[in-house]
Design goal:
Length: 150
């Protein structure tokens, strides 16, 4: 792993030694900055029972800039758009070099448990979440069964 910042090496070692519950992370190929992530849908959420695939990339400037993360699995969520981009403050203006990949993954998992339709990326989904939350949750559960069955 020569040429790779010690910080990235340490984070990978920690993720392997002490994995985040419900989340697996694997390096893709020989690029130590590019990861495949599998995230179990949190219990007590419409995503429960689903296994969601994400990609995570650590830019050259990491940890001064946040990782790039997106869902590859199709999602029905107000903070995740059709391209899988995620609206999460720590992936944008609230990023701090003190945060780690582990923190980012836990935050994304928490976002699945607690969607925030007041800060949407998918406006149509957010609108439904606000006007008919029961139907939105039902749709999210249906999409989970259809697109994220393990």
């Amino acid at each position: 792993m020569s040429g790779v910042p010690k910080r990235i090496t340490k984070e990978i070692e920690r993720l392997n030694r002490d994995p985040v519950p419900g989340i697996s992370v694997e390096i893709i190929g020989d690029n130590i900055r590019y990861f495949s992530v599998a995230m179990a849908g949190p219990s007590q959420s419409p995503y429960e029972g689903g296994l969601f695939k994400l990609e995570l990339f650590l830019p050259e400037d990491y940890p001064m800039v946040p990782p790039k993360v997106r869902f590859l699995t199709k999602m029905y969520h107000p903070n995740i758009d059709k391209l899988g981009r995620i609206c999460l403050d720590i992936l944008k203006d609230k990023w701090s070099p003190a945060l780690q990949v582990r923190t980012v993954l836990l935050s994304i998992q928490a976002l699945l448990s607690a969607p925030n339709p007041d800060d949407p990326l998918a406006n149509d989904v957010a609108e439904q979440w606000k006007t008919n939350e029961k139907l939105a949750i039902q749709t999210a559960a249906e999409w989970t069964a259809k697109f994220a069955s393990a």
